[in-house]
Design brief:
Blueprint lengths: L14 H13 L6 H8 L3 H8 L2 H24 L5 H16 L9 H9 L4 H27 L9 H20 L4 H17 L6
Helix pairs in contact: 1-2, 1-4, 4-5, 4-7, 5-8, 5-9, 6-7, 7-8, 8-9
Length: 204
């Protein structure tokens, strides 16, 4: 299975693990078997177990590799402009390129596969929580810079704006996998930017 064009642009964790990631992304964790992974990765089962461990370890390795690459690209997007709105536009554009690169669109590997397994697998739940917390921290730091530059108000806090931004991101991931058009998703992203940058206070 070859990686689709545009997703991700610089996956640096090896083609074998990338092929496992592609299988999990399309089929989900539960439906993926060791036999399927072995065939996709070009390994017999003994070699697969020796090199990568069991299915959960392979999945977690693929998730970690995906997250490492995405973190690099998120950092670049958020630093791409001194203007917070333009930086968030780059952030969401990059996310949608990932979410919609496949046919049909598969959304986000982390959000669209790990959430389904988090309750049953404590290690995956911990991994997912770490992904969410890490992105919250990156976004909050960028909103802090924007606040200090006078681009957004002091309230909501950078942490609250980060959580709202990530809520929009998660919705885009789910909606893309549900078949919503790229144009509609882009419009939603623009509305999300206006919301998280323009609101002056949190109201009940």
């Amino acid at each position: 299975m070859s990686p689709p064009r545009g997703r991700p642009r610089k996956f640096e964790h090896g083609p074998v693990l990338l092929r496992a990631l592609e299988v999990f992304w399309r089929q989900g964790y539960a439906a993926t078997t060791i036999d399927t992974l072995a065939a996709a990765m070009g390994l017999n089962k003994p070699s697969l177990y020796n090199a990568y461990g069991d299915k959960q370890r392979i999945y977690r390795a693929a998730l970690a590799a995906f997250v490492a690459q995405v973190k690099e690209e998120v950092g670049a997007a958020l630093a791409s402009s001194t203007d917070i709105r333009q930086a968030l536009q780059a952030f969401f554009d990059g996310a949608l390129m990932v979410y919609c690169a496949h046919e049909p669109a598969l959304g986000c590997f982390a959000i669209c596969t790990a959430t389904a397994e988090a309750v049953a697998h404590a290690d995956i739940q911990q991994d997912l929580a770490g992904v969410i917390a890490g992105l919250d921290a990156m976004l909050a730091a960028r909103f802090s810079e924007a606040r200090d530059a006078g681009q957004v108000s002091a309230t909501p806090s950078p942490a609250d704006r980060a959580r709202l931004t990530q809520a929009v991101l998660h919705s885009l991931a789910v909606r893309s996998r549900a078949g919503e058009s790229r144009e509609s998703l882009s419009a939603m992203a623009a509305q999300g930017i206006a919301m998280v940058c323009g609101v002056d206070s949190m109201r009940d």
